[in-house]
Specification:
Strand content: under 5%
Shape: globular
Distance between the termini: 43 Å
Largest sheet: none
Helix content: 55-70%
Order of helices and strands: HHHHHHHH
């Protein structure tokens, strides 16, 4: 979503609001993931609770996307160059509830790699001034994405393979193939791949001049998703016990 005029950049990461938001996020996601994992392998009553928890997480993901969508489309804040829900994280926030509620592998793969490899940048370098409405809207949006990805991976047991990595990379390439011509035609900067640099500087400025920086953005994104895949391979080897059953099934069903 758009960057406000009072963006503080990397210094936001040192604010108490940012650290408090990180703490709340870690506690909430930790509890939800623990319950999801425990109930998924529990008795039949607990598996009912696990399904209800999954539905609840999916619905909360819809709320996270909806509040950001409404906030930036309000007349007082709307601008064609900034307010359309066309950022990659806007799409990831809509894919998150689809992945959690349906259990379809393609959206789960996209959520996993986009959420854990790309959208986590918001937690490292928050762009909104602490205490502003945009700060809280941005946190809710990204917490919905990343929290859903973590819940799917550790609570529901989703373990991607290399084909899933390909799905995530191809989905990102498809996004770039659509948004880049749109930015060129309109002069906008959705996805940070446009030629313009509206507002204060961001981390993208360190990647050089346009259009070469688009190449670097693509390469860094692909490398980040590959690192997530490699970490998955490590976790898979270290994780004890049987593999996670498909959604809606108990460990004993085939």
């Amino acid at each position: 979503m758009p960057l406000p005029a009072n963006t503080l950049g990397v210094s936001n990461a040192l604010s108490w609001q940012h650290l408090a938001a990180l703490g709340v996020f870690a506690v909430v996601v930790g509890v939800v993931v623990t319950l999801g994992r425990r109930w998924r392998f529990g008795a039949s009553e607990q598996r009912v609770g696990a399904r209800r928890l999954r539905i609840g997480v999916g619905l909360l993901g819809l709320v996270a996307w909806g509040q950001s969508f409404v906030y930036y489309l309000l007349p007082a804040r709307f601008a064609w160059s900034k307010s359309l829900p066309l950022e990659l994280c806007d799409l990831a926030a809509l894919i998150a509830p689809l992945a959690i509620l349906t259990g379809w592998r393609t959206p789960r793969a996209v959520l996993h790699f986009w959420g854990l490899a790309l959208c986590t940048q918001f937690f490292v370098t928050p762009v909104h001034a602490p205490g502003t409405p945009a700060f809280y809207v941005g946190w809710v949006l990204h917490a919905g994405i990343i929290g859903s990805a973590l819940f799917d991976a550790f609570g529901l047991g989703f373990r991607p393979g290399w084909r899933d990595l390909r799905t995530g990379v191809l989905a990102a390439c498809a996004y770039l193939a659509v948004i880049l011509p749109f930015d060129i035609a309109t002069g906008f900067n959705y996805g940070y791949v446009g030629a313009s640099r509206p507002g204060p500087p961001t981390i993208v400025d360190a990647l050089g001049a346009w259009p070469l920086r688009v190449v670097w953005i693509g390469l860094i994104a692909a490398a980040a998703m590959t690192v997530v895949m490699l970490l998955n391979a490590v976790f898979r080897r270290a994780e004890p016990g049987p593999p996670a059953p498909p959604l809606g099934q108990s460990p004993g069903r085939h």
